[in-house]
Specification:
Blueprint: E1 2-11, H1 16-27, E2 35-44, E3 51-59, H2 64-71, E4 76-79, E5 98-100, H3 104-115, E6 121-123, H4 129-140, H5 174-184, H6 201-217, E7 221-223, E8 228-234, E9 237-243, E10 246-249, E11 253-255, H7 262-270, E12 276-277, E13 280-289, H8 290-298, E14 315-318, E15 321-329, E16 333-336, E17 346-349, E18 358-367, H9 369-372, H10 379-395, E19 400-404, H11 405-410, E20 428-430, H12 439-455, E21 465-470, E22 477-478, E23 493-495, H13 506-521
Parallel strand pairs: 5-6, 5-11, 6-7, 11-23, 19-20
Antiparallel strand pairs: 1-3, 1-4, 2-3, 8-9, 9-10, 12-22, 13-18, 13-21, 14-15, 15-18, 16-17, 19-21
Helix pairs in contact: 3-6, 3-13, 5-13
Length: about 525
């Protein structure tokens, strides 16, 4: 419990101590009366001025709630401790709980269960991160794709090969728990107070490894190369999960398989687990020179050592459809994100330093179930696959279609790159980057680029580069769950994270994983007592 003083706006090069002093001045409190600490900081480069904006926490030995109410200042509020109490049930489990998938949702579900004595059994279809790195490097170097161990599947999930962005809009008090846990396992301490924290894939991989070791040290088991192939039910309740390595008896299983586990979705649906279609997005990756983006957003201060690489967040709505930037990676690279053979899929990734030559982001166009309704829950999945296979057919290989923005806007194929060179690791084929997308998505992209160019100078510059397609923005299905968190059609299964349709990024997936673990913990006692 504390006082929170927000919207403290200072020059970007002012020392942090100045923010603490300003918080005390605004509240009329002295350093002897309160302890002060920065709890959130962000850069605001709007309106031609660059500021650093702080929120400061003040801890005082008096009634902070009454003090805030007495001040009646809009930027000072009382912040209670909102973290939910750790539940503890009384029933006895006949079998250890199972967690399927070791991406952000499954990792935090398993970590939470292990930490509190539930000794979970974790099943992951891909390999550990060492094996994943070898498989991904081999594929990016021109080798064969491993359908079970790639940028989508394996320890850490798709999030392990990303920018490691930890921004979210969910406002859940467990977000703080996620940040503290990541920092405790090797992520930079700064993530706890940055408004737009990121870890970087180079550091995030080691954090994931450390959390997995902690799961094992606390009695859990992690089985790699073990895919979920179905479930066994008795009277509509979970009796066991079926895997590529055999059957594992359990009465509670967290299913956190990620947004690309298409074969798993189909198998569970055949076992009676209820699915419904949901909205998602498709699009392309856009690349700019990071130096040009810095100049557009920071002006004369571009390159200043106290400023991070510039980033952006753009959106436009028209006719009930949205086009928006997604997964923006300053100083990053466009990566090959296939999980099925004979397809092309792109994504973005950055390392912690964000010091690459290019910036990239997805430009995504919203897709509604009405756009792909085929009478099944899996019409969106089929649309994704058609786009990915069409892109492969377009280039005749795992190379990605690539096009300069100027050519795309003019409706002509590209013959080569200009000032911006592509970073896609397998190589590109110049032509039409968005040709595999539905016509409505191509039209929306073509209409939105000039609009975004009016927001950020040079965003629609002729030499900016488009690489496509981007299809894995989120899950195209929802594994529907009830108020008790159990999946409809199967009591005992807890659908969780992005693949189940209940998260959209590392933070929200991790929070959903903790909530799934708490659902088991509120009903059952620890198995290690």
């Amino acid at each position: 419990m504390s006082l929170l003083v927000s919207n403290i706006r200072l020059p970007f090069d002012a020392p942090e101590q100045q923010a603490l002093a300003e918080a005390r001045r605004l509240t009329g409190l002295t350093a002897d009366e309160v302890q002060a600490a920065v709890c959130r900081v962000s850069i605001d480069a709007r309106r031609g001025r660059i500021s650093r904006v702080y929120s400061v926490r003040l801890d005082a030995p008096f009634d902070e709630k009454a003090f805030a109410e007495h001040l009646q200042m809009p930027f000072v509020r009382y912040k209670p401790d909102e973290k939910p109490a750790v539940p503890r049930g009384k029933k006895r489990l006949s079998h250890r709980p199972v967690v399927v998938g070791l991406g952000p949702a499954g990792l935090f579900a398993a970590y939470t269960l292990a930490k509190h004595g539930y000794a979970p059994v974790v099943l992951e279809r891909g390999g550990d991160l060492d094996e994943r790195d070898r498989a991904v490097d081999a594929f990016w170097g021109g080798g064969a794709l491993d359908p079970d161990c790639n940028i989508q599947f394996g320890e850490g999930g798709a999030g392990a090969y990303s920018d490691g962005k930890l921004t979210t809009r969910i406002g859940d008090p467990l977000c703080e728990t996620v940040l503290e846990t990541l920092a405790a396992h090797g992520a930079p301490d700064e993530i706890v107070k940055k408004a737009k924290p990121h870890v970087g894939t180079d550091i995030l991989k080691n954090v994931v490894r450390a959390m997995r070791r902690n799961i094992v040290e606390n009695g859990g088991e992690v089985h790699f190369r073990t895919a979920l192939t179905g479930v066994s039910l008795q009277g509509g309740a979970l009796r066991a999960v079926r895997t590529s390595a055999g059957e594992t008896a359990c009465e509670r299983a967290v299913v956190a398989v990620g947004h690309s586990a298409r074969d798993t979705f189909t198998a569970l649906h055949q076992n009676g687990v209820y699915f419904e279609p949901k909205a998602f997005s498709v699009g392309v990756r856009i690349e700019h020179l990071q130096s040009e983006l810095d100049r557009a957003l920071y002006g004369k201060y571009a390159g200043h050592p106290l400023l991070p690489p510039a980033e952006y967040n753009l959106s436009r709505r028209e006719g009930g459809r949205a086009c928006y930037s997604f997964c923006m990676c300053p100083g990053g690279v466009v990566v090959a994100a296939q999980s099925e053979e004979n397809t092309v899929v792109t994504n973005g990734m950055s390392y912690h330093a964000r010091d690459g030559k290019n910036a990239n982001a997805a430009l995504a166009v919203s897709v509604d179930p009405r756009d792909y309704d085929d009478g099944t829950p899996f019409g969106g999945m089929a649309l994704q696959r058609r786009i990915e296979r069409a892109a492969y057919a377009q280039t005749g290989s795992y190379r990605a279609p690539c096009q300069r923005v100027g050519d795309f806007l003019a409706g002509r194929p590209s013959r080569g790159a200009g000032a911006v060179q592509p970073s896609y690791p397998i190589g590109v084929a110049y032509g039409e980057a968005a040709a595999s997308l539905p016509a409505f998505a191509q039209d929306m992209l073509r209409e939105s680029l000039p609009y975004f160019g009016r927001k950020i100078r040079g965003f629609d510059a002729p030499d900016a580069l488009l690489t496509g397609p981007e299809t894995r923005t989120s899950s195209p299905v929802r594994m529907t769950r009830g108020d008790d968190l159990f999946g409809l059609g199967c009591a005992g299964i807890i659908p969780c994270g992005e693949g189940a349709g209940y998260a959209g990024g590392i933070m929200s997936a991790a929070v959903d994983g903790i909530r799934a673990a708490y659902r088991i913990m509120e009903e059952y006692a620890p198995v290690l007592e």
